[in-house]
Design brief:
384 residues, D-Amino Acid Oxidase, Chain A, domain 2, 8-stranded mixed sheet, 6-stranded mixed sheet, globular, binds flavin-adenine dinucleotide
Length: 384
Amino acid sequence: MTTDTNDPEAETPGTDTDTNTDATVAVVGGGAVGTLTALSLARRDADVTLFEAGEIAGGASGGAAGICYDAFADPVDAGMAAEAISILRDRDAIADLPYVWFAREGDERNAEAIREAVSRMQDNDRAVAIIDPSELGARWPGLRTDDLAVAAIARNAGVVDTAAFTRETAQFAVSAGAEIRTGTRVQLDGDGRVDGDAYDAVVVAAGAHTGRLLDGADLPLAVEAYRVQAYLSEPTPLSDRLPALYDATEGYYARPSDRQVLVGDGTVPEPRDPTDWKRSADGWFRGDCATYLETAVGEPLGERRSWAGLCTATPDGGPLVGERAPGIYVATGFQGHGFTRAPAVAERLAEQVLGGDGVDAYDPTRFDGDESFEIVEGMSPDPE
Ligand SMILES: Cc1cc2nc3c(=O)[nH]c(=O)nc-3n(C[C@H](O)[C@H](O)[C@H](O)COP(=O)(O)OP(=O)(O)OC[C@H]3O[C@@H](n4cnc5c(N)ncnc54)[C@H](O)[C@@H]3O)c2cc1C
């Protein structure tokens, strides 16, 4: 890492610190979004207190796969992701690694969706292209490509140690003047007070708990928590010969992780109570991962460890980031793609809290909050 965490004057690369303020801001949640927002606010001279119920990176940000790319068909998402990757690069936090996604022979629906999405991403000036499966196999011999029908590659992509990044961000925020209180689960009331204390603004970035916290303040939010799962294989030399990938036909993503392969998805598209859910991976998922690895790399790699985490869904699959009620801001609903956009989301949210513009497309008030909707898996080759 290039930034000196002990120097409160050190610029965090990729941030704009033009806005100065002495506003008091409470940030709820010590994940990637909360710590980055606290850092952005503190660097703009806000008086920031971050409350974290457990430990920094104890939520989804500590268990994420850390695959980042700007290959979104939606121009706002693509722009936010590109800005985020640029901030991650400036912090030396991302290991560049192309992201490839593909459909297998006989899966014409996903093959067509990939072709269409790539064309729209190219319209957004993303560095993505259709790639010949044999070229893919030659570049990454660990990946079985003999039955691929259509494959695409995104070059502005990489992988991040999300837990380490989030903890480092918290250190940066403290160095920039923020106060962080871990082990402190707070409540929000209808006047925007946090455990009874008033602030000029409150940012609720409490991941899967955000909806519940807002409910407590009578501010319903159109968001549901759902469970996803991840599997880390035993060490294998194949890990050096793989890109980050999404197999649209089989419904799995994978990435090399040190000398292991991390496989994920295992989405259970049902609403979960964020205070009562199963943190270990399901038996069916663990068995399927070993089988899937045999399909993807030719070997049924055994399990080193597996786990589950919560993601957040919204009616249209888009995030809820911005002002929900006067002085009360939220950032949630990332549908499994929260880390990859978090650095840019945090910058924009901090600007909005201090009087700037938010991201219109992510405005949480586009929903009343009482909508009922089906949870749709976040990973998809579809262009929407
Ligand atoms: C297995 C898995 C794999 C993933 N892979 C990727 C990926 O490859 N790429 C990607 O972009 N995204 C991925 N994601 C999604 C990504 O992890 C999330 O979108 C992102 O980390 C969300 O960050 P957050 O800060 O919003 O939430 P969190 O990291 O969940 O942080 C919220 C924090 O709020 C705290 N909190 C909750 N309630 C309270 C309260 N009342 N008071 C105080 N604190 C409170 C919690 O303890 C928690 O630490 C993955 C998620 C999972 C689970």
